[in-house]
Design goal:
The complex is a heterodimer of chains A (175) and B (552). Chain A is an all-alpha fold. Chain A is 65% helix and 0% strand. Chain B is mainly alpha-helical and 552 residues long. Chain B starts with a helix and ends with a helix. Classes of the chains: A mainly alpha (175), B mainly alpha (552). The interface between A and B is large, with 84 and 81 residues.
Chain lengths: 175, 552
């Protein structure tokens, strides 16, 4: 995938954009194939051989996705494209900053994997801190303080206010 | 009237001290979160959903009603003071509202938005009281073929009428249906798309889908293109209006309500079309058309009223038919489902107390909103200046929390990340998000209705058109699909018509029963459905680059 660049290079931009969206069409086609294979493997026993088995709707969806993939590929090759979403804090004139995106994704993944060991408070405080730094915060102490307050506050809010116990992990016995 | 008696009972349930407190908390939180830049009403309700987990059904729905209206009001504050609508329905509000704020009339813009929202919300909720039982009475007699047809209609409407590209809309819909497919088949118990993973056999929690698409997708997308430096916000005092402003506002409020409610009530959804129609109408009827584009108060009053009235209107198909037609309604259905309650015609019979308490609390929430937000507006304006790294880090924090709390499974966070990437992709390539979430929620239900329809007829597909309403709905769908290209072709041949002749022709606007309106309005819907989306898109494109230049 490529990022939209400035309007000055619109010819190149249009070509690159067109090419990257072909990837989306390919993804749709792959999903259609996955559904088709999965559906073919559904065991169709005598009990559920009634009027409409479990295969009908997935088959329709797979065909629909496949048609969308083809139509999208044709549309993209003919130069069609939709505008990327704009918004208050979005500057589409700059390229997508992949380190930030993958960094944030990685942080979420680490948070999920370490939940049982670190517990919610440590994990989510680190998630907030890391995300804030990745997003450009340079107030290293402040961001950490906010993260810890947010995590501890949420933990007790859930336990005391909602009666939902979040995992305490390393801090079991302390919190 | 029977309805009124039931509503009064609802009021007596909702007006306990505890429930009023829940409503107050809901309104405050909804506004505070909704006003944050980058957070639209749908994300507000999705992020705040876990808060209602521990409450009983009534308390939770009352709080949710507050969050719902609060989130909507917060969104309009953002668009007026920042010119940066969080949701497509507040795009039109930003057109004139932000110009007013820049001209030093932000207080009046906020006031007309707040009072207009109150007037429209109250009138439209009143309309809901009378329309909903009528629709229920009709819906009770409907069979599976009609339900199936209406779901197909909702699918086609959210994926092809709104948004700029039909192919992308349909692709989004099919992706949503795919997500809804995951899990054990409801009737036969066969696993589908679970890949042998037992945690997937219960399906993907819809809360996780909603939070991933709205919150994580949005945060990642913004993170990739984060504008450096906080955009300039306009400080504002306590909202107030002069006599002249009242004079210019009250008619647009009422007209906006009349335009907004029917559009919300037909299961086609979306506040984009009614808000834009209201804008065009006010521009045409205004005594000061020259002020439009420079901060005309009518251009804020009308669309804001239309927005709120259509939001109340979407509760008609949501409560009576179980059809969510906007992103916010899609999340609201989750609030019901977590208590095992399925919105639909039976809801009014099995849970009358609950339904009428909810409707009563909509009135209460609306009133609280007005009472709170006029004095608190300067405070909300300060929230707009929250440093962006903290804001988006906070969104990710609460999104992961919400996904985890949905089933106490870290596995959900993995799904959250995957679907968040999907949400990112949708934003990058201009795929609409609404069809994904509607497809994921309604897909399994649609399969159930299809099965039921075919079971009755022993597999004969002719059963699908065995009910008159189903036939009507399918004809409307065909008009939907053929209409816009036909109009476009005709226009190309015969030249453009006047841009504003459509909304004034709204003869059936006061036909609020949902069904009659559906059939009557189709023609206009088609005839300027495309014109509307073209038109609004063009206006946005004109406005946005100016902002970019100013801020650089």
């Amino acid at each position: 995938m490529t990022a939209p660049s400035t309007a000055a290079t619109s010819g190149l931009r249009a070509r690159l954009q067109g090419r990257s969206e072909l990837g989306v069409a390919a993804l749709l086609a792959v999903i259609a194939i996955v559904i088709a294979v999965d559906t073919a493997n559904i065991r169709h026993t005598a009990i559920n051989a009634g009027v409409m088995g479990p295969r009908v709707v997935p088959t329709i969806i797979a065909i629909g996705l496949g048609l969308c993939a083809i139509a999208l590929a044709i549309s993209v090759l003919r130069g069609g494209h939709a505008d990327a979403e704009d918004g208050e804090d979005i500057d589409l004139s700059q390229k997508a900053h992949w380190p930030t995106v993958f960094g944030l994704g990685g942080l979420i993944l680490v948070f999920a994997l370490s939940m049982d060991f670190l517990g919610f408070v440590i994990g989510s405080a680190l998630l907030f801190y890391g995300s804030a730094l990745l997003l450009g915060s340079r107030r290293f102490v402040w961001a950490l303080v906010i993260g810890i307050l947010l995590a501890v506050g949420t933990f007790y809010g859930f336990v005391l206010g909602l009666g939902i116990n979040l995992p305490a992990g390393l801090l079991t016995g302390i919190l | 009237m029977d309805n009124l008696a039931l509503l009064m009972e609802g009021f007596s349930n909702a007006l306990t001290l505890q429930n009023l407190l829940f409503a107050l908390i809901g309104v405050l939180l909804g506004t505070a979160v909704g006003v944050l830049p980058g957070i639209g009403p749908a994300m507000t309700v999705a992020l705040l959903l876990p808060l209602t987990y521990a409450l009983d059904v009534t308390g939770s729905l009352i709080m949710f009603a507050g969050i719902y209206y609060g989130g909507m009001y917060g969104g309009s504050t953002t668009s007026i003071l920042l010119n940066t609508p969080g949701e497509s329905s507040s795009v039109v509000t930003a057109l004139e509202g932000n110009k007013m704020a820049k001209a030093g009339r932000g207080a009046q813009a906020l006031a007309t938005a707040a009072i207009g929202s109150f007037v429209a919300g109250t009138l439209a909720t009143g309309a809901l009281v009378f329309v909903a039982p009528f629709v229920v009475a009709m819906a009770i007699g409907l069979g599976a073929p009609s339900y199936f047809a209406m779901m197909v209609f909702a699918f086609i409407a959210v994926s092809t009428v709104l948004g700029s590209s039909r192919i992308r809309g349909l692709a989004s819909l099919f992706i949503g249906l795919t997500i809804g497919l995951v899990g054990l088949d409801g009737t036969t118990g066969q696993p589908r798309l679970t890949f042998g993973q037992p945690l997937l056999s219960g399906g993907i929690d819809v809360v996780v889908i909603a939070v991933a698409l709205f919150a994580v997708g949005e945060a990642l997308w913004i993170a990739a293109h984060l504008r450096h430096g906080t955009p300039a916000t306009i400080p504002v005092g306590v909202p107030w209006m002069r006599k002249d402003d009242w004079k210019r506002s009250w008619k647009p409020w009422l007209r906006g309500t009349v335009i907004g409610f029917p559009f919300g009530a037909i299961p086609a959804g979306g506040a984009e079309i009614p808000t834009f129609l209201s804008y065009v109408t006010e521009k045409k009827l205004s005594k000061h058309p020259e002020q439009f584009g420079h901060g005309a108060i009518e251009g804020v009053a009308g669309p804001e009223a239309a927005n709120n009235a259509s939001a109340a209107g979407t509760l008609v198909p949501l409560l009576t038919l179980g059809l969510p037609t906007t992103a916010t309604a899609a999340v609201m259905i989750l609030a019901f489902n977590q208590y095992g309650i399925n919105p639909g015609p039976l809801l009014f019979q099995t849970e009358p107390v609950l339904v009428w308490t909810l409707i009563a609390s909509l009135f209460i929430g609306n009133t609280l909103l007005l009472a709170l937000n006029l004095p608190l507006a300067p405070l909300w304006a300060k929230l707009l200046r929250i440093p962006r790294p903290y804001l988006y880090a906070g969104i990710l924090f609460f999104a992961t929390l919400g996904a985890y709390a949905a089933g106490m499974q870290t596995f959900n966070i993995g799904i959250l990340l995957l679907l968040g990437a999907l949400g990112y992709m949708a934003r990058r390539f201009g795929f609409p998000v609404l069809p994904i979430i509607v497809g994921a929620i309604l897909g399994p239900e649609m399969e159930r209705q299809l099965r039921r329809a075919l079971q009755i007829s022993a597999g004969d597909p002719a059963a699908l058109v065995s009910e008159p309403l189903a036939v009507v709905v399918y004809s409307v769908i065909v008009l939907f699909l053929i209409g816009p290209p036909l109009v476009k072709a005709l226009r190309r041949r015969f030249g453009r018509g006047g841009p504003a002749d459509g909304p004034l022709a709204g003869g059936s606007m006061d036909d609020t029963d949902g069904y009659g309106a559906e059939a009557d309005e189709t023609v206009e819907f088609d005839a300027f459905g495309t014109r509307t989306s073209d038109g609004s898109a063009r206006v946005i494109r004109v406005v946005r680059p100016k902002v970019g230049r100013r801020e650089k």
